[in-house]
Design brief:
This protein is α+β, with helices and mostly antiparallel strands. The protein folds into two domains: 124 residues, no CATH class; 150 residues, no CATH class. Helices cover 40% and strands 13% of the residues. Helix 6 crosses helix 7.
Length: 300
């Protein structure tokens, strides 16, 4: 094969994907731009060009990170064989990007790479995909996705209202207060836009972040949150909320722009990822669960 795909033998998929995400975080840290703020996030999650299905969990973050580092503008990915079946050719020398999938752990199989919290024992395995920018001979049969800003706002408003979360407005800080089970938000007029987003985008991306925190209450998804600001549990929960908001922004068509207060968390996120190669996998899984929970609340 002319393309670069590592052997699966002894390949550490946790380390490979985590290192790519860390690289993207470090690259964008100076401007508070994380992989989940990169180009294309606001028009949805990465999708498989062959199946049309959106990627989930850490694969979303990993592919966003790869696109951020390499400058890929397309969110279409597929394996070498899938591109072949689509009539496309992966260019010689192109490097595949690892994604993870899980399979049941067979009796007697070593437990290295086992994923926790999934009900049954599952083992992580790697697969490799290539971006649309790495192939020749394929034209996307789908029309470019264009967001209608008015439609996106209406959709986001309906989504938030359906959760029936208690939201109080006023002050200068956005936060979720567990004891009160209340989300506190500044007035909409206090949010500002950027070159690529509107004040409305900034408002909703912040609110979706706090809604992700809201899902972690003991009577909802019951996620543990640190009691002291700056501890590892607090940083981890902030990472879950960041990813949850990014997934929701992508699904709702809201531009997920960086905020200056991300500077407070970048160092702690990097420390968490450095100490635990599975941390971002767990955070992405919990963020996916939170997003799914919120969408279930908004279902007709």
């Amino acid at each position: 094969m002319s393309t670069e795909v590592p052997s699966t033998a002894k390949f550490d998929v946790y380390r490979a994907i985590t290192e790519k995400i860390v690289e993207a975080i470090e690259r964008g840290a100076g401007e508070f731009v994380m992989p989940w703020h990169s180009r294309g996030v606001s028009i949805g999650r990465p999708t498989n060009a062959s199946t049309g299905m959106s990627y989930r969990g850490v694969n979303v973050v990993g592919l966003w990170a790869e696109a951020m580092v390499t400058g890929y503008e397309s969110g279409r990915w597929a394996s070498f064989r899938q591109w072949q079946k689509l009539g496309a050719t992966v260019r010689r020398g192109e490097h595949g990007t690892p994604i993870v999938f899980y399979k049941p752990l067979e009796a007697g199989e070593p437990a290295e790479g086992e994923e926790e919290g999934r009900g049954s024992r599952m083992i992580a395995r790697a697969s490799w995909v290539f971006n649309e920018a790495q192939v020749e001979g394929w034209d996307d049969p789908e029309e470019p996705f264009v967001i209608d800003p008015v439609d996106a706002v209406e959709k986001a408003e309906e989504f938030v209202s359906a959760t029936k979360a208690r939201i109080e407005y006023g002050g200068d800080t956005a936060c979720y207060r567990p004891r009160e089970d209340t989300i506190h938000m500044p007035e909409r007029s206090q949010f500002v836009g950027s070159a690529t987003s509107s004040p409305t985008d900034a408002f909703y991306s912040t609110l979706l972040h706090e809604l992700t925190h809201w899902t972690g209450a003991s009577h909802r998804l019951d996620r543990t949150k640190g009691e002291r600001y700056g501890d590892q549990a607090y940083a981890f929960e902030e990472l879950v909320a960041e990813l949850g908001a990014a997934f929701l922004c992508g699904d709702l068509g809201i531009a997920n722009e960086p905020r200056p207060d991300h500077a407070e968390y970048v160092g702690s996120w990097l420390k968490v990822l450095d100490q635990d190669r599975k941390a971002v996998f767990t955070a992405a899984r919990l963020a996916t669960t939170a997003a799914d929970y919120l969408f279930e609340l908004s279902a007709p």
